[in-house]
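User: Show me a protein chain along with its predicted structure.
Assistant: Here is one chain, sequence first, then structure tokens.
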Amino acid sequence: MNSHPRIMIIDDQAENRAQLRALFEGQGLDVMADGRHGIAAHHMAAEIEPDIAFVAVEEPLARTMLSVDYIRDLRPQSVVVAYSSETNPVFVRRVMQSGVADLLRAPISKQELVEAIFRAVETFQRNSMARAEGRQAGGTVFSIVGQKGGIGKTTLATNLAALLAQQGHDSVILIDLDTRFGDVAVMMDLPVEFTAANAARSIKGMDRETFQSMLQRHASGAYVLPAPARPSDWLNVEPHDLANLIEYAAALFDYVILDTPGALDEGVAVAIEMAAQVVVITSPDLASIKNTNLLMAYMEGRGVARERATITLTNNIRGQGVSPADVSRLLELDVDFEVPFATEIIRGSQAGQPVVMIDPTSNASRVYAELASRLTGKPVTLPEASRTPSPIAWFRFGRREPRALAAVR
């Protein structure tokens, strides 16, 4: 380990604390403090300001969750790992909204604990590197998230990828991380051969030629790594595998766009953590707005500044009658962009072509261009017509100097 995080353990069971301490020490890491829940634990946290905290969350939940919330408020950049025997979905959501980096389900094996320690240290080191550099290392990562299906995440992701690729001076990859119903390949009319799950499992030690061979190329010039057709193909893909895949892609491409599922899971948490900008999609549907509120609370708990979130309202049904002002009032946050309802979007999805290609003069295409300009900080122009990209773009990608894998905020 290149850096030495300040570590603490909070658990009412002395035996558990001793076991965890021994596992940390076995990895060459010192635990600065451990103790029971309560005021004494809060004092310890305030004194050492932990970089990593392992916290047991058991009954009474209100008491043990106070320790998590206290550390997150005290030091938002802390990597907090919670572990619990509780499986109630309401409890799980409450823990995830608190901003923990990991939630382990008891009983926990020794191997699971060691792996959790490594993930926590990797996250700490990645975050430390990004803060030390004060910038995004490698390519820029944009994560498209939204806590409901059918609200336009994939539509926005595919249009953004196509639009940026058509600018002609940057390389773009779109990775479909939807573990349930990944539709990027369908909406871009591409075959599914190698997938994001395949790549994530084998990214360690992969050379760039092998990675290149796994990608599909869309007519816009964007490269695509689709999701597998079967959700079961994501088995044995861990959050750190996804982080490694995103870092690898960012070392090779100028822009990495991540499409995510419509429910908060570990993959979405990784995508949010590693993004320079998180595009939060919501719709006028009240369930979508409610879930967006929960998502924004989760992101705030993870220390994601409002400036890193771009809230986009998509109108996927004609005449829903809820204005952006209404949505802003319900969210208590400003809506940054509104994508109007457009039959051209539906037509493009059915044809496997983003609307920015089949109808670049549409109002929806104009909004996508404005969003792309905001995200990249560069002027983004709409193409006059659909075109097939020149093979020069790949040679430009291939000539880029190899870089060491670097952290991406």
